[in-house]
Amino acid sequence: MSKGTILSGMRPTGKLHIGHLSVLENWVKLQQDYRCYFMVADLHSLTTKFDETENLPNDIREMVLDWLSVGIDPVKSAVFVQSSVTQHAELHLYFSMNIPLSWLERCPTYKDQVAQFGRQGKDITTYGFLGYPVLQAADILMYFADTVPVGEDQLPHLELTREIARRFNFLYKTELFPEPQALLGKFPLVPGVDGRKMSKSYGNDIAISASSEDVRKRVNAMVTDPGRVRREDLGNPDVCIVNKYQEIYNNELLAYIQKTCRSAERGCVNCKKELYNLVEQLLAPIRERRAIYENNTYELQRDYLLKLKNKTRTKDPDTNERDEAPVHRKFDRYWKKAGRKEKETLKKTGSQVIADYKSGLITLNDVQSLLDARFDFVSLILQKGKERAGRQAVKTIEQVREAMNLRY
Ligand code: SF4
């Protein structure tokens, strides 16, 4: 039985780095016990990147591929894009009518972030940015999430969500919204290979999807103890980035590593080799899974639809051999609008789709889903995630409108 409902999300930043891994691994564990909604927070990214939307589709795709590669299961959990479930924007609007401005202005990160962006020459003192904690509350409360996995730094935002739930319940004399509880997790801060904050824009990150060669290059580029010029010099692990990584990924041997570094029994070349092997062990299976998803075969898409059907126990009304004419009609409509790439995919997979339909393995709805997703696995799971999240969102909005007397 599910322990409760969880909503968690990430802004679409493209390929993720190993600093994100602990959060994702936590999600993977949580999906065993909770009903999970994992959201690509594209509306949140607009609060600061409203003028940088050209890479959004690709960034969403790359990030979702990383989620899947780490082990997010789109059959167990709803994986969806925030803006595709438009009720998020609607609930945000309803909440924004009664949230005092002072609640938002006192948010500890608000002024810091405005100043930080200001130093980079960007003014984010917008209506949307000030209100992003309200959007966050709408995201969580939309699914009546009772649990939110957070790091300690996000606790003030969660408290605001709880206040927003309380205020709504008080104003409209209802008990509609639960006050979500924090599920505190410890997420180690992985530094960039140069010791600064890990960031793609600094070029100091190790991507979750990095090739073995890239991992080697990044580990080799790590800054070690600058005072240790020769192999026989005594080392100081406290000022070495490799040591920080050993602390995270090789904690059991940390005392030994530090001791042998200080006594110069350990050399930096071997120390880095050891770390490379550890990171490689961590990333190799993720890379393999990513390759399967990137390969994007029809079989992968079909099996996903079948597993989903099994989970939701959707009954297939007709499993006898079927007439293929309706599928052809769908193909014809698709063909008229399809680009070159889509036509090629249809030529390649069309006969298999028809065979699976005729044998009763997939339904006409499945065929439509595959066409809507243009035979793209990521699009398919986002589309199904949108349907699942959307069903709950529609119900929530109905209840909210009822509570607010918005009946017409
Ligand atoms: S031996 Fe390892 S911990 Fe010590 S300075 Fe070299 S890389 Fe850093």
Question: What does the model show?
Answer:
This protein has 408 residues and is mainly alpha-helical. It has three domains: 5-184, HUPs (Rossmann fold); 200-294, Tyrosyl-Transfer RNA Synthetase (Orthogonal Bundle), CATH 1.10.240.10; 297-375, no CATH class. The chain has helices at residues 21-33, 42-49, 56-70, 87-96, 101-105, 108-119, 127-130, 132-142, 155-171, 212-220, 241-249, 254-262, 268-295, 298-312, 325-337, 340-358, 364-372, 377-403, and strands at residues 5-10, 35-40, 78-81, 147-150, 181-184. The strands form two sheets. It has a three-stranded parallel beta sheet with strand order 1-2-3. Strands 4-5 form a two-stranded parallel ribbon. Helix 1 links the parallel strand 1 (5-10) and strand 2. It starts with a strand and ends in a 5-residue tail after the last helix. 32% of the residues are buried. The model has no long low-confidence stretch (mean pLDDT 93). The structure holds iron/sulfur cluster. Iron/sulfur cluster (SF4) binds next to helix 11 and helix 13.
Quick structural summary:
This protein is mainly alpha-helical and 408 residues long. The chain has 18 helices and 5 strands. α4 crosses α8, α11 crosses α13 and α15 runs parallel beside α17.
